[in-house]
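Example S7 (structure tokens).
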């Protein structure tokens, strides 16, 4: 009796043909032309290097990127360096197998882990494409400088952290920041963990309870780089997936709060579908993902409460450009030409631009035939401008259902 190949076996089969495997959901993040250039770069490395680009979703097939790479290596039956992405799509993870090494140890002959973290820690990579980050990783492997670069960047981050927050013992996400000593020949795992916590201030994928129901943050690794047709396909896929999760929910109509949250989730689903059907450009398609995100937040909280837990704090998407992902930083911002100051949530890159008095990479919309930041469209013509994609008012779902999305 024949059985279908497992996910790991399917990926391994693809890697026998090409050293780069990309899950279809992340294909826009690594277009075919970029993929070909990356393959050429990987083949110049002194060791076989395999890139396994698969989204890591809480509650999904893979617990984390490390488990994915371990399974794929086992199914492929070949040693070498394996690199992928973790639950936060901005984070590379890597392992090396040599056939006789201790899988638990940190160092590898070609410094695979250190090379990945050197790319993760490099500020120049903050807004870089996935192709650029993977190419940088491959070049470190080829040059044999991954460990040295990792130690240099670790020391730089440690110095910057001490200068900016000498007395602070916790990161912005509430996790402890461990003491870091960089530059030693051996890199302590504890130090790496401390640097990871510090670095996560710029990461868009907040780890929250109920992540299995929340909108996967890997979505935003591709959405921001997709063209309109690709974004429409992605938005449609997320609406369908949200609807399937709603159909499968076991939340009953008991207590008032879970019932109200479930109603909100259903309304958000209806609003997302309505927006998708009438979407006339990227701002509307971004609105679809905002509505799905709000609905999934409500569904996750309803599920948690029904199980005896607590509500899950909602995290809005970046005010300046929702396709950047989570608005993990609160900033006070004054629009150009006005005296009014706004307090908004945005991604780390946009927060840095505001702090440095630069224009953030905001989402553009059309106003009288010319592109302008979406929030400069007259509010009577765009519910996205009027509500800041839901950050200024909490009635976005209701207003979309009422027909305010586009007038």
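Recovered sequence:
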């Amino acid at each position: 009796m024949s059985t279908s190949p497992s996910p790991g076996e399917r990926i391994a089969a693809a890697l026998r043909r090409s050293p780069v495997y990309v899950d279809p959901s992340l294909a826009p993040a690594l277009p075919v032309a970029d993929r070909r250039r990356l393959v050429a770069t990987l083949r110049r490395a002194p060791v076989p290097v395999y890139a396994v680009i698969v989204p890591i979703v809480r509650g999904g097939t893979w617990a984390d990127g490390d488990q994915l790479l371990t399974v794929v290596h086992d199914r492929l039956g070949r040693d070498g360096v394996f690199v992928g992405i973790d639950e936060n799509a901005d984070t590379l993870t890597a392992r090396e197998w040599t056939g006789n090494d201790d899988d638990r140890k940190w160092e590898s002959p070609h410094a695979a882990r250190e090379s990945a973290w050197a790319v993760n820690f490099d500020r120049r990579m903050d807004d870089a494409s996935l192709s650029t980050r993977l190419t940088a990783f491959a070049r470190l492997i080829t040059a044999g400088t991954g460990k040295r670069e990792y130690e240099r960047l670790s020391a730089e981050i440690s110095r910057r952290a001490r200068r900016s927050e000498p007395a602070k013992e916790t990161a912005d996400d509430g996790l402890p920041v461990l003491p870091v000593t960089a530059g030693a020949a051996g890199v302590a795992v504890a130090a790496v963990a401390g640097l990871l916590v510090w670095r996560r201030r710029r990461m868009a994928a907040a780890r929250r309870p109920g992540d299995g129901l929340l909108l996967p943050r890997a979505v935003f690794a591709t959405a921001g780089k997709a063209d309109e047709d690709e974004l429409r396909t992605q938005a449609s896929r997320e609406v369908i997936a949200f609807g399937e999760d709603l159909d499968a929910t076991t939340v009953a109509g008991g207590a008032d709060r879970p019932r109200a949250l479930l109603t909100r989730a259903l309304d958000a689903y209806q609003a997302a579908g309505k927006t998708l059907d009438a979407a006339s450009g990227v701002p509307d398609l971004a609105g679809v993902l905002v509505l799905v995100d709000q609905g999934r937040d409500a569904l996750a909280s309803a599920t948690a409460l029904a199980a005896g837990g607590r509500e899950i704090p909602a995290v809005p998407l970046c005010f300046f450009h929702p396709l950047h992902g989570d608005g993990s930083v609160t900033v006070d911002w004054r629009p150009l030409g006005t005296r009014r100051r706004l307090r908004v949530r945005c991604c780390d890159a946009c927060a840095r631009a505001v702090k440095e008095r630069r224009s953030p990479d905001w989402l553009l919309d059309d106003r009288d035939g010319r592109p302008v930041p979406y929030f400069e469209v007259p509010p009577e013509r765009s519910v996205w401008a009027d509500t800041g994609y839901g950050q200024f008012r909490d009635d976005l779902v209701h207003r979309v259902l009422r027909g305010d999305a586009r007038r």
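Notes on this example. Residues 219-402 form one domain.
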